[in-house]
Give the backbone structure.
Amino acid sequence: MPDFRRKLGEDAMTIDWAHHRKEVHNLGQVQDFLKQLVFGGNDGIVTTFAIVAGFAGAQAEGVTHVGAIAVLVFGLANLFADAVSMGLGEFLSTRSKKDLYFKQRQFVFEEFVNHPRQEYAELIQMMTERGLPLSSARKIADEVMKSPELVADLMMSYELEMHDMRQVSPALDGLVTFLSFVSFGIIPLVPYLMLPPTEATFLLSVLSTFLALVGLGLLRWWSTREKMSRCVGETLLVGGACALVAFAVGAIVG
């Protein structure tokens, strides 16, 4: 094993973490908000196509001809109402997780002050469970205990298994979810904005929905670098299943 302790150089303590994170690990704002983009985008596509498919299913069963204005009114009303609900829901859930994180972190600091021996023992156990000999774990714990912040970081990650929420913005998470919902969700309605509500228009809406789901799957692939077939296939499978249910319900009700 190479000796990594040999002369690290002056740059060893001057790493630009933001640059390192972006250039080496390929992590940027898209990856930061991937959950919100995928969740909001998929739900937006499915929500609006459910309206289109529901009307088409009812019409296919002989219900009175449904005009494009009806599809658009119901589709757009549902799109923006659900987008606001999703955005605010994301805001509240993220805010709750952040509040819980800070509450537990404060508790860890209190434990560090009031019961240092217990925290010391927990640190040793964490390190021995991950393969360090007991003697090495004790030496490292002796040094770590000199930094309450580092102790808190370790306890939050390994003892409580809580993701670091200090840099998370609930408002921004909610806004990204809202915008993703609207941006992707409007796509199935585009044919009805341009054409009368014929069978061909519905087929164009199906195609638009398919392309929107493919685009969302490609966004997942680009962000995660997992297999393209898996990212796109899973997105199409989930969205397609919801679309088929919406069409079937419309036909049954019709």
Summary: The first helix runs from residue 17 to 23. The CA atoms of residues 191 and 204 lie 6 Å apart.
